[in-house]
Amino acid sequence: MVRKDDARIIQRVLEGETEAFADLLGRFEAKVYSLVARLVGIEAEAEEVTQDVFVQAYTHLADFRAEADFSSWLYRIAYNTALMHLRRRRAVTLPMDERLIDSVTDEMADSALAEATEERIALLEKALKRLSPEDRTAVTLFYFEKRSTREIAFVLGTTVSNVTTRLYRVRKRLYLLIKQLEHEQKR
Amino acid sequence: MSKNDRLNDTALRMALQREQSRIKMPEGMSGRLMAAVREQAQATRPSTAKSKHQLIARWWQMVAAVAVIAVVIMLVPRLTKRQGMELYEGSFVKVEGQRQDDLQAIRADIREALAMADIAEAAVPKADVVQEAEREILQAADDAELHDLLEKMLNE
What we know:
The structure holds 2 protein chains of 2 kinds. By secondary structure, chain A is mainly alpha-helical. Chain A has 10 helices and no strands. Chain B folds into 2 domains: 3-43, no CATH class; 52-155. Helices cover 73% and strands 7% of the residues of chain B. Chain B has a 3-stranded antiparallel sheet with strand order 1-2-3. The radius of gyration of chain B is 31 Å and the shape is elongated. The model of chain B has no long low-confidence stretch (mean pLDDT 71).
């Protein structure tokens, strides 16, 4: 549900008070920029994409439906805009063999993601950069923003069960990426 | 994925937190973002731009209104012509030239006539909705080619 103060600001902007949009910007720009920077990877491009996100949000403000949280709506625009940007840049995420993912047990993934040693955290930070934008958004929103699978489904434009499966498999994918990075470091 | 899973993945959460600490918003970005929004505001006002959702809703409203009008146009002449019957403001009915003013006998016909009158009356404001919806659809088409195509479709 949309927060009352967000709804009031949105109403003012829709009534023609453009400057009221600065309040929404002030509240959400850091969060949007953060998600965009994680997805785009290059800070100089992240500002440009963030600008596109807020211009689009302003232009389509009349489309915002109060049943969704305003920040989720913004994240959805941010995710789609970043995705478009990555496609234009022809950024490629290397696919991973699904059978390989299936071979990873829950216990293997559990220990890889729980043991908070300095080395493991550093490896995970690198592994996160190798995830697809979809996985990266899901992981960021779930673990960092502490969003529900329902909200993540809204942002990604998919179903809750799809998000649950994605989060389940991404843990195994991260395990494999850690192993891959360890192997690269040894060479 | 339960809340416990989220809590147990400590290393992952810490990696995300560390990544976050490296993300610094460029200085003066807020001002630049707002300037871009102001520039956009001069070109378009958000409240005037009709959404796709609203246009679709309008379209269906229009289709429904046209369907009601079509039903009325089709049924009213059929009712008045049926069995050579004429209705005179509910006071009496002429059936094949014979005046019939027995209310018990013509009750069903009166009820049917009143129901048809209700439908016809309800259809009148719908006609305004149709015209307004057509106008809004044409206004929302900012592309000249699309505008012409829509106008042609609506006139057909």
